[in-house]
Amino acid sequence: MPEKPDVLQGTLALMVLKTLDLLGPLHGYGIARRIEQISGDLLAVNQGTLYPLLLKLEHEGAIASDWGTSENNRRARFYRLTRAGHKQLQTETRDWEQMAAIIGRFFSVKGEDLS
Length: 115
Prior knowledge:
Layout: H1 12-23, E1 26-27, H2 28-38, H3 47-60, E2 63-69, E3 75-81, H4 83-108
Antiparallel strand pairs: 1-3, 2-3
């Protein structure tokens, strides 16, 4: 079975924000598993990348956290989207869709289109 690629640099924050928007508050492990699940298990979320990102997003005000109890009765920090996080998600989604459309043009152009 081929190794799962890591999430592309710069896209994990968008995936975290969207996951929290869709599913509400989750702990870090839950966020990672949901991102992998949504990707059809084609992506691997590196814990060493996720937790520093969660701290960064919290520091920026995009997410907030509270301590709670996980499904397996363990103490865990649950992250939720803030109002600023909703705005950031909208902006990043628009920017990502615009960039994806631009890149899509490069894959669809043919040599004779440039003559």
